[in-house]
Design goal:
The complex is a heterodimer of chains A (286) and B (252). Chain A is built from 13 helices and no strands. With 286 residues, chain A is mainly alpha-helical. In chain A, helix 6 packs antiparallel against helix 9. Chain B is an alpha/beta fold and 252 residues long. Chain B has a single domain, classed as P-loop containing nucleotide triphosphate hydrolases (Rossmann fold), CATH 3.40.50.300. Helix content of chain B is 37%, strand content 27%. In chain B, a hairpin with a 2-residue loop joins strand 9 and strand 10. The chains are: A mainly alpha (286), B alpha/beta (252). The interface between A and B is medium-sized, with 27 and 31 residues. Bound molecules: adenosine-5'-triphosphate (ATP) and magnesium ion (MG). The site of magnesium ion has 4 residues of chain B, from helix 1.
Chain lengths: 286, 252
Amino acid sequence: MMRRIFKIIEERFFYGLMLASTAFLVALLLFIVLIILYKGLPSLSWEMVSQTPKGGYYFGREGGLLNAIIGSLYLATGAVVIGLFISLPLSLAMNVYFRNNKKLVNAIRFVLDLLWGIPSIVYGAFGFTIMIYLGIKTSLLAGIITVSIFILPIMVRAMDEIMKQVPLTLLESAFSLGSTNTEVAFKVVARQCFPGIVTGVLLAFGRGIGDVAAVLFTTGYTDNIPTSLMDQTATLPLAVFFQLGSPIPEVQSRAYAAALILTVIILLISVVTRFLSRRYYKTSIK
Amino acid sequence: MNQPIISIKNLNLYFGKQHVLKNVNIEIPQNKVTVILGPSGCGKTSLLKTMNRLVDLHENVKISGQVFLDNEDILKDNVDITRIRKKMGLLSQKPSPLPMTIFNNVAYGMRINGIKRKRKLRPLVQKHLIEANLWDEVKDRMNDPASRLSIGQQQRLCLARGLAVNPEIILADEPTSALDPLSSTIIEKQFVELKRDYTIVLVTHVLRQARRIADYIVFMYLGEVIEQGPANEFFENPREEKTKAYLKGAFN
Ligand SMILES: Nc1ncnc2c1ncn2[C@@H]1O[C@H](COP(=O)(O)OP(=O)(O)OP(=O)(O)O)[C@@H](O)[C@H]1O
Ligand SMILES: [Mg+2]
């Protein structure tokens, strides 16, 4: 009898805990979104997303942030593309070619986890050093390289975690048809893990587009939309950063509007990507 | 018996410290159905996986001995494993479709063998699905994910997929375990048909099935081959005590 009551109390307790923590998370998310909306929405305008800054924009005059929006999109897309070209083969190699070399694979995982833990400002400083060494000026290219290094461990580990879950029976059935390692990796494992790969890319895109520190020393800042990889470029996180530091309330409010734009971009890209790749979600083996 | 297509000599297999196959010697005749019998856990699956070197995927595996396929020892380090595996299609005990559509599952093996054109693939896919007795059920849903098929349908899909690689030998690990009696009988008949073009090695727990289709029997117990020989002799005049006990149902 006592045991039964105890069980019921236990059950209730953990159910309550689960409910409370879920509620807390949702509330936190809502709170953040509401603050950005409340503070940023009043100064959000069509002008802001369709024009580059005119003289005196950062003192509250007319113009917009199109340069930073485009700059950020270029930067994050470039970094993710470079990241994908390295992270996909690497994570596939870890889980197909070298899957029986546990020592090697675990060493790689360990290094990646360390890299993941390094703050982005360090990557920014590192990128800066490399730039000086190679004689590259602050530019879109320098930013793309720095951000791609910074998001690489995130992408590899996100994909790796999913590929680790591929059932051995699936690998066996692919190999028993006479597939080579490369065929198993790209035709079977990559396809099976497609949802995870998409998640890894989106995660990296979000981190890359939102980071200030990695671009602080590397991209420069300009009012123009970049037309080549060697141009300097503005980015949204830096636009938020600069405007937030302004004493003018109008400009501060624009900082929140820029943050709002950033959030909407990430959201849109997530939704569109998931929509476009839904076909591949269905064929994955559960 | 004419020249065996596979002959296994003094094969030992260890998973870590566990001795799974103990000094196994088997001769498998060409264009016949060889059935491997034995109680659960005796090493039947491990034997099939050694024959096409799928055990390479596992960690801590140790193999000694020889497996000759067409007089070539396939356990040697320098053999091209993908070529060996294309010669020996394996149907695993648990059907495991690839993460793609039904059509692409069957087409997979042909694509990696260089047949890429849809126009060429389509009739071949159909032919192999008919051979596996699945065509009628899936002909209107070729673009559905294979994972949506029932387990029994998946088993037949894997058979079609295996046939599409054009193997010489089919290693089938309990290929009818998820099928109802009627479909089992159809697949059994299919195997008997297939032996004209292929050599078949089939694992089963069902004695009656073995009686119906086997030409040659290998009986295993705890990792050892206890007795092997032509099916009628095996069933009519078993030599070993363990075989007699098994045939009476002692280990089931
Ligand atoms: N990957 C593995 N690692 C360690 N031990 C294994 C592994 N695979 C199989 N074994 C062991 O090897 C022995 C033989 O297994 P196997 O799967 O070959 O048996 P089986 O005859 O196919 O049985 P069943 O009829 O139940 O399928 C068992 O004792 C099993 O526990
Ligand atoms: Mg088995």
